[in-house]
Amino acid sequence: MRRVVVTGMGGITALGESWQEIKGNLKAGKTATRVMPEWSEFQGMNACLAAPILNHALENRWPRKKTRTMGTVSLYSVYATEKALADAGLLDDPILSSGRTGVAYGSSFGSTAPMTEFSELLFKKNLHKLTSTSYLKMMGHTTAVNTGLFFHVKGRIIPTSTACTSGSLALIYAAEAIRYGQQDVMIAGGAEEICPSMTAVFDVLYATSTSKDPSRAPRPYDANRDGLVLGEGATTLILEDYDRAKARGAKIYAEIVGIATNMDGNHVTQPSPETIEVMMRQALADAKLDPSAIGFVSGHGTATEFGDIVETAATHAVFGDGQPIHSMKSYFGHTLGACGALESWLGIEMMRDQWFAPTANLETVDDRCAPLHYVRGEGLILDTAYVMNNNYAFGGINTSLIFKRL
Questions:
Q1: Is 300 designated active site?
Q2: Average pLDDT along the chain
Q3: Architecture category of domain 4-247 in CATH
Q4: Structural domain boundaries of the chain?
Q5: Active-site residue, from 164, 195, 339, 369
Q6: How much is the pTM?
Q7: Which of 141, 300, 316, 326 is catalytic?
Q8: What is the domain class of 262-405 according to CATH?
Q9: How confident is the model at residue 142 (pLDDT cuts 50, 70, 90)?
């Protein structure tokens, strides 16, 4: 098997577009949670908080001919990819169109705005709002397709529309494509756009925070948490064959040394600690590492009661007492299809900087959560060569990635 390394990273988030900007906000304890007064018109909606990206204006960044099939979620994915390719020094490289570069990308859904156009068709029997691009914007593989088209990629395409593991599963499949020689470079990541329909999905499950104070939610692992807050954004990682990256003198951020994914096969919305534990052990075995080698775990930490308890129980079963862990969703909200890629990016950057952010809003750890080291205060200064990033999704889909600092 070939070694897989990360040679470029880029993203757009509600707390910035560069690691230095994001790190400054994390150190200042600033979160992206906002009140969404426009959601008050939806009868029965309990949630009023979200973590939106403000003033992105990406529609005017490129010619309309290049963006006419893109909704907001695809604009995010293309923008994050543009930044990541530039970071890797591959933005105009012939490798993109050689057939040796592929795309693995996902979102939990496509853009949601075209749903209204199809609603007109179904409920009013009228096609007047439908256009030739309506479906292309909302299809489940819109981010993968539009990203590949924009950069003229001619290798394999791996769409991952698996809810909250869309971004992390894309990284896993991309790593496998390089490991086994199918591709030399992979564009991999995830994206999501905010829409009240997304919040409604969780609202009817009583999984959203009903707090009206944006400074108090979400609260992963906290005894007083009351649910998740949705966010949006995109992150792209450029994965590359190690030998190729070294030969061209690329900057290498990290190596992907362990990957694993499985499903619970049990319940569509309630995760199982047993299969999560198995998955983490599989990732460690893939990396040929003992659990003690993992200095930090980037947790999924959605601030839902059952989710936090199950996740920490499984983590404790593998690592034991005192394993350092945090949740980045406390700052960015739950970015759904983007979170696996976003949290991988941030985990790599923190490992390189030897500083890991605390979980925001975490005051009193729920005593039903396992006895881990829940990072609080000013964060954790830690020199470690390995970070694990874990994510979980509806359907009982579990993912784990282990990154090594190089």
A1: yes
A2: 97
A3: 3-Layer(aba) Sandwich (3.40)
A4: 4-247, 262-405
A5: 164
A6: 0.97
A7: 300
A8: alpha beta
A9: very high
